[in-house]
Amino acid sequence: KGQQGVAITNNGGITFTSYPARGLQTDARYACYPTESTWYIAAGSFPNPPPPPPAASNSTKKATRARKFELQNADGSWNTEAYRTYGVHTEGAKATLGDGYAAAISKTTDGGRTWTTQFAQNNTFYFNEIDCFGADLCCAAGESSGSATPGVLIYCTTDGGATWTKNYELDSVPGKASYTMMALNFVSATEAWACGGKISLFPAPLFWHSTDGGKTWVEEAANADVAGSICLGMDMKSADIGYAALDNIGTQSAGVGKYSAGAAPPPPPPPPPPAPPSPPPPGRTHYGDPNAGPCLSDEEAITITGLTGKFCSPGCTKTAPCPTDVPDGATAAPQCVLETQGSQTPTQCALICQPSKNLADGSNAACPTKATCKAIQTTGLCTYDN
User: Which among 117, 118, 205, 358 is placed 20 to 30 Å from 312, CA to CA?
Assistant: First the structure.
């Protein structure tokens, strides 16, 4: 398996210096460096499916190349027969359930010169990421899919690794779902995050949150934008901002998710209401006679199909009602009632009157002088004849 330990660069990755962790009996997987001289390694190994059997050498038939494939279960686990002791394969032998799992944590306090194994356990699970806030407060994420107790778990220490306590555990559901926990990040002495996912026919990302320094963990809901993915890594930049590396098993695609805490940003302010119409020039009002001169700047001369006469009509909307100034003597009420071609709501104003109150000469007391009330449907409009 080669030499276990850590490698550190001080020139942006051009060269690395290796620091062997002698005495570590399983694979170094993740490490963290809370101080210049105090470092931790989270280590572990897990069973591998067996390699394909060797081709027969005594066959007289033409040789063909073949591969053996082990199909993973829908819950992410492997059949018991697929497990073998790590690095060893004996054809025809069956391994004990969980055989090949190993988990260990090793620590140095002298910048990698000497290492001490603080935690070691076989045939149960393996560690993924470890992270610390300071030299004494650390947590490590672990998982397994084929041991006697498959699932995910978190071990933490508050005394620099003198004792490691299992503070969280989520058991897999055989035949339905297997869980993975890949990443763990401290934000402060009290806040930390972990992430992974549910591996099943319907994969989903899982995020865990601690606000008491890793003593307790709660699952935080993920939104629909990241459905179908599992989280492989995360970097919490602060309590409010974080990023997660996401892998979508179904679509074989990857991406980055962003976490933003706190209240949602306030909605943009509503647009300002339209400016009120300019007051008419002295001696002139809205709803005048276009035959006697041009309409005001915010009006247009309107002719209604089927009615004689026309009138000056200002525009209107739901938020910009009709101007209320009317020619002298008129009592008709301005209303936003006219729809122009192609519109779905009224956009023009008119003076509404009652044709039943017309006098013998066609005039109507509600309409301006020289205007008459023309019947349209169940009401009337004041218009000016040529």
Answer: 358
* CA quadruple 274, 280, 285, 286: dihedral sign: negative
**Sheet with strand 253-260: strands edge to edge:** 229-236, 241-248, 253-260
Contact 372, 383 (CB under 8 A): yes
Residue pair 351/311 in contact by the 8 Å Cβ criterion: yes
Which of 9-18, 249-258, 288-297 shows the lowest per-residue confidence on average (mean pLDDT)?
Answer: 249-258
Q: Closest Cα partner for 115 from 34, 28, 42, 24? A: 24
Q: In 3D, which of 185, 34, 44 has the Cα closest to residue 117?
A: 44
Q: DSSP character for 239?
A: S
DSSP-assigned beta bridge partners for residue 55: none
User: What's the confidence (pLDDT) of residue 74?
Assistant: 52
- Residues whose CB is less than 8 angstroms from the CB of residue 211 and which lie 6 or more positions away in sequence, other chains included: 190, 191
Rg (the chain; Cα; Å): 40
- DSSP 8-state class, residue 277: P
SS3 sequence of 58-96: CCCCCCCCCCCCCCCCCCCCCCHHHCCCCCCCCCCCCCC
| Dist. CA 209–CA 185, nearest whole Å | 10
C-alpha 125/C-alpha 151 separation (Å) is 9
pLDDT digits (tens, 9 = 90+) for 219-252: 998 887 788 889 999 999 998 999 999 998 777 7
Amino acid at 318: K
Residue whose tokens read 């209604």 = 304
Residue 262: band (very low, low, confident or very high) from pLDDT cuts 50, 70, 90: low
Question: How far is Cα 294 from Cα 301, in angstroms, rounded to an integer?
Answer: 8
135: left (phi over 0), alpha (psi -120 to 50) or beta: alpha
Q: Tell me if residue 319 falls in helix, strand or coil.
A: coil
Question: What is the DSSP code (8-state) at residue 7?
Answer: E
